[in-house]
Design brief:
With 163 residues, the chain is mainly alpha-helical. It contains seven helices and four strands. Strands 1-2 form a two-stranded antiparallel sheet. The longest helix is centred in the middle third of the chain and has 33 residues. Helices cover 71% and strands 7% of the residues. The N and C termini lie far apart (66 Å). The chain has one domain.
Length: 163
């Protein structure tokens, strides 16, 4: 919302979100804002570009969570699964699904915390302090990458490993 003078000179609030998108998009935007750790009450007073930026950050956090869940699910399926006589791999879903959900929640909360607490200095130049603030996210990306790559490599090279 922003302030706009009405016909009698009083200030009235203009609601950007209802003006810019419909009901369904409004729900999606608010969900993405929450995923990114943005405050919807503050964003009501912000311009449309800030709405998009906050939704973009939330989308990245959500995508990271989904990829982490898939990676952990694949890892648990590979580790705790069994190959039958006909060569079909059957995973243990009682381990896979809870492990993937818990890992996804851990990554979601860590990532949301990191992106909502990292602040820039307002300049275009990336400072050493901003590089330092980026290190936890980079570390987490490496951990997620390892959880994705190790089971995937094992699966891809399974025939060579069994020889």
């Amino acid at each position: 919302m922003s302030q706009k003078n009405n016909s009698i000179g009083m200030n009235e609030l203009v609601d950007y979100q209802k003006k810019e998108y419909g009901k369904t998009m409004d729900r999606i935007m608010k969900f993405l804002w929450k995923c990114g750790g943005a405050d919807a009450q503050i964003l009501q007073y912000a311009p449309y570009s800030d709405h998009i930026k906050a939704a973009g950050i939330g989308g990245v956090v959500l995508a990271t969570t989904v990829m982490a869940m898939i990676a952990m699910g694949f890892a648990m399926h590979t580790i705790f699964g069994e190959n039958t006589k006909d060569g079909v791999h059957h995973g243990n879903w009682f381990v896979t699904i809870p492990a993937a959900l818990v890992w996804g929640l851990i990554i979601f909360n860590l990532d949301r915390f990191i992106v909502s607490t990292v602040k820039g200095d307002g300049t275009e130049k990336i400072t050493w302090g901003e590089w330092g603030a980026m290190l936890p996210r980079l570390f987490m990306a490496v951990i997620i990458g390892l959880t994705i790559s190790a089971p995937l490599e094992t699966y891809i090279f399974q025939k060579e490993i069994q020889r």
